[in-house]
Amino acid sequence: MVIYQELNKLKAELDNYRPLSPELMAVIYDKIKIEWTYHSNAIEGNTLTLQETSFFLQHGLTSKGKTLLEYLEAQNHAEAIDWLQNITKQQRPITEGLIKELHTLLLRGIEHVLVGPNGNKIKKRITPGAYKLQPNHVLTVDGKVHRYCDPIGVPGEMAKLITWLNTQKSHPVEAAARAHYRLVAIHPFDDGNGRVARLLMNLLLMRAGFLPVIIKNEKREDYYRALMEADGGDLEPFISLIAHEAKDSLMMVLEIIRENNN
What we know:
Blueprint: H1 2-17, H2 22-43, H3 50-59, H4 68-90, H5 96-106, E1 112-115, E2 122-125, E3 137-139, E4 145-147, H6 154-165, H7 172-186, H8 193-207, H9 220-231, H10 236-261
Antiparallel strand pairs: 1-2, 3-4
C-alpha cells in the first residue's frame, strides 16, 4: 500500500524530533490517553462525553446522570494505557497471560454486564481475565447474527494468535490491524473484546515506534462494517481504515510538536 510509505515518512519525521522534552511528552500523552479512552469506550456504548472523560481523568470530576460503571470503565481504560506504556518500555513478550492481564485491568471491579436487546437486557456475570465459558454472538450492522469461536476452541485459537504475533513480518501497521481483527474474530472473553483488541493493536504499534490508533466514535459504523467485510474474507478495508487512522495520529502529534518548536 502507498499509505505505508506515507506512514514511514511521517514516523521518520517524528523520530527526528525524538527524544521529546518531558513537558511536551506529558501534553501529548494526556491528549492521546483521554481521546483513546473516550472513543474506545464510546464505541462500546459508554455515554460519557469527551469533556466528561477529560474532567474525570484529569480532575476526578463527575457529572450527574452518569453511572458509576461508566466512570469505572474510563478509569480502568486509562490505567490500562498506563500499563501498556510500561509493557512497551520493558519489552515484555506478548503472551496469552499478558492479554488476560489486560482484560483484567479493563474490567477490574466489574462483576456483571448487561446483554441482550434494548428494553430486554439481562445481567450476565463475568470474570475478568478468564476466557468465556458460554458462546457469544453479535448482531451486525446489516442485521445478521455473527457467532464467534466456541469456548472450547478459544485456548487453541489464542495459542495460534500468539505464535502468529511473534513470527509475522508484515508492516507494523498491517500486523497491528490483523492482530486486532484476529482477536475480535475469536472473541475470547465474555465482554471487553473490542477494547482489548484495540489495546493489543496499539501495543504492537507502540513497540514498533508508531503512535496509537484512535478509532473515532464518529467512524463507528465504518469500523464495524470493515470488520464485517473482514469476517467475509476481505481484510483490506479494515487494514486500510487502521492505516489511515495511524496516519491521522502521526499528523496530529507532529502538528503539536511543530507548534511547540516555532
